[in-house]
Every structure is written in structure tokens, then in C-alpha cells.
Amino acid sequence: MTVTVDKPPRTHGTDEVLGVEGLVQHFIGRRSWTDRLTRTPEHVVKAVDGVDLTLATGETLGLVGESGCGKSTLSRCIMGLYQPNAGQVRYAGEPVRGLPTRAQRRTVQMVFQDPYSSLNPRMTVGQTLGELLRYHRIVPRNQVAARSHELMDLVGLPHDALRRTPRQFSGGQRQRIGIARALALQPRVLIADEPVSALDVSVQATIINLLTDLRESLGLSMVFVSHNIAVVRQVSDRIAVMYRGRIVETGPTEQIFNDPRHPYTQLLLASVPRMLSSTTDGHPIDATESLGTADPLAVVDGEPDADESPYSAHAIEGEHGCRYRPRCPVAMPACVDEPGLLPIAHDPTRAAACWHVDDDRKDEPR
Questions:
Q1: Which of 72, 231, 288, 321 is deepest in the core (most CB within 10 A)?
Q2: What's the pTM?
């Protein structure tokens, strides 16, 4: 079901507030003694494999892709929770070298997917916020309580919530607390990592509206991470589609929905469920309808074969060419070479990692 929210007019600057260049994050699987004795090669999971992104001041970038494509890993690399193997992260044009400094951490803050596991169950909300405000010296000590009350007002919670622990709140209220904690450091960038995926649909709408209002009132830039492209459409100015550790298409939100160029983006759009009003005989039905111009019959259903899984040995060792090729209905011999993000003719705001971006070679044999 699609969540509908009110979208205010969007305005943002052109200066970069967050940048990612050539970011790589690989994980090496644990080897058993049997693997070592048999000299089994190490299993390397390429969670993020060469990502370039920019975020402008006041902009909301939607990062979408199916589960396991590397969205959350990329978010944690940007936050400094992981130290990437290669590449660079920039906060307001300043490169982050090693772990972010205290000042840099205040620039970018994160709202986690599971608010309960990200909060200390032994601390009250007031203690959680107070500890942050005092450690980072956001306000004088005698103003910590007043600032905590202001944060509760910002996220729509009563002041007595400061005296309670996380287990005494509902899922939506916990997410509001997570948002308040992120806003306590007065960040310029907010990374929302699947902030509504664990919530009921009705609660999702309230959290999305809250994030939208906070963005407008506080002048925040935001990276909104989700596997649900229909939700991302409600809040994003621009979308970056991620597949198996790489960005495969970027562009303004409505242009991505109206004219998707990469076959994987077309699959995502064709997979969004829509409630159709009625059938020809007048009975209501629930069916799947494309949200863009993509043809649902032109994409491959289901997940990749086991041998082509991002975690399989075949995919890990010596992987070449377009990663979407095993699932792509329009793959051709040229796809054995990785295309990278190619600009779309007459539209400098868009790019797609597909040889078919600007031609009609879709009928060539695989």
C-alpha cells in the first residue's frame, strides 16, 4: 500500500553538503579450520563497491534498492561506523580521514531502522538526550533540561516522556525519540535508514510527515534509505537506485518514475503494489500495477539464481561486467563490460549504468 503525505514545495541549494567518491566496503567471511586446511579461498562480500554520490544543501536524496544491495552499509560508512576499504567521504567539502572528529559527527546524524535496539533500555529519554547535549556542549549545563523539552516539542512528544524508558513507548514513539536524539546535535544532514519499514502504514505516514516538516523548518539535507520506492517518492527530490553494491541509476524523482532507463529500476517500479478501484464487473480487486512507464512483462520475475547471488562464490571471485546481466531481459554481448554511470542525452541531471541508456539495441541477442 502506498503512503500518501502532503509534500510542500521543495527548494534546495546547489552547494555540496555531503559527498561520496569511489567508496568501497568489502567484508571477509570467517574461515573455519577446514577451510584453512583445504586452502579454500576467502569469501569476500562486496557490500559497497565503488559508489559516487553527492547531496546538495536542503536536498532529500532517496536511496533505494532491494534488501541486501548495500544501502545500510553505505549509510554506516558515511556515518563513520564502518571504515571503508577505499574511497572518500566529504562533509561540507571537507574529507573525513579515518574516524570522524567530534565536530564532523555533529554535521551528520542517523535515524536507525530499529529504534528500540538503537536506544539504551536502561536510560530514560531525558538521560539519553542530556548525555549527548553535555558531551558535545551543545548548550550550557543549566539549559540541558530546557533544550530537551524543545526536542520533545519538535517531534511531537509530551515533556513527561523524558522520564520514561524506551520500553514504555510504541514503535512510532520510539522512532520519534530516535529522531529527537539525532536532532539534538543540530546536524546539517540527516540519514534516515529505513525509518518506517518496521511501522504500521498509518504510523509510517505520520513519521514521513514529521521528517518532511523538520526538513523544511530546520533546513536539513536528508538521505532517505528504503527498499520501498513508493515511499521514497513521497519525500525525495532525487533518487539513486542501488543494486549489489553499486549505483545503477540517478535522477530527479518524477523523471525516474515517468521514464526509468535501467532495467532494474523498471523492475522496482513494476513491483510496487497498487490498489485498483474495480474490475469490469464492478468488484474491487487488489492487483499490481506499474507506477512508471515500465512494462511489468518486460522484466524478469523473482530473485537471481543461487549461482548468481551476491554472496555466491561465482559472484565473489572474478566478477566482470554488468551485475544485473543474469536477470536482465535486454542483456547483450557488450554487457560483459561494466558500463558505469552513463549520462542520458539532453538531460545532465540523470545517469544510468546501462548500455541501452540512449539507443534502441534492446532486441539484440544475449
A1: 231
A2: 0.80
